[in-house]
Amino acid sequence: MSLRPGTAAAIALCALAAAGCGVGPGEEAGRVTLTVTRDHGAEHLLRDEEEIDDSDSVLRVLDRRAEVETRYGGGFVQSIDGLSGGEGGGRRSDWFYYVNGVEASVGAGEYEPADGDRIWWDHHDWTTAMRSPAVVGSWPEPFLGDHGGRRWSVGVFCAGARGACAEVERRLHQLGVETSEVAAEEEGPDGEIRVLVGPWERVSEDEVAALLGRGPERSGVFAIFSGLSPSVGLTLLDARGRVAETLGKEAGLVAALRPDEGAPTWVVTGTDAAGVAAAVEVFGEELADRFALATVSNGDEYPVPVP
User: Fold this and answer.
1) Single pTM value for the model
2) Which site from 28, 95, 133, 241 is most exposed, i.e. has the minimal number of CB atoms within 10 Å?
3) Nearest CA to 77 among 54, 90, 56, 93?
């Protein structure tokens, strides 16, 4: 990503792009999936598998497949295949990258990919929300892969939707993911991905999930729950933070939250029981290349943010 000097945002973003492109080739270390998109996954620019060696960085992987321009001594990706970060009309856009569904905390020149990693670069407007720290579109990550040299365990936290919880667990088990099942009010261990399943009225009692009621600048997700049962609403926003869709009964959402540097919290929730069931239906490959995904019981789907 690129930085704009003289702004607080630039200082905050600086930590995400420290550089260094590595040295010569080393021993073969496996394969990774490289995806490049724009506008929160709305448009695909590149997708391929790439062999890596033990001297590779995320930046080197990208540089082999695309024309890359950097700034600040090679520390920041300014342009990929001619699409640049910049400012205009009071808006700011840049390149961001995710590994296995999580925004990296080190620069692309420093991150050493592992076999099976899913690397996702996306160019998007970050004026409304500086960060989207976790995304759902690298499915089946983050449940299977490596995260900076460690694996996270997975816990399914059931908030009054036993059938939905069971189906989420079944789908994870099909991937080969071992899970623990606990009540929503219990806390999981450090280093565990929490998957909260249930209607918003119950899920919102969780401190992290409650961020979905406070706007994208807090949650990183361009969807906002509001109201109380039986009048819970789900408002979907575009990348500029403008209202794009307003959903009521039978609306569901699958989103990922990460307010700190630990494992993300996934939320599979809805305005009511039917909305939760709709969210469970898309808990799988339907999430591909989405930052988050909203749906309703009739099968309609809404990428979040709404293009």
Assistant:
1) 0.88
2) 28
3) 93
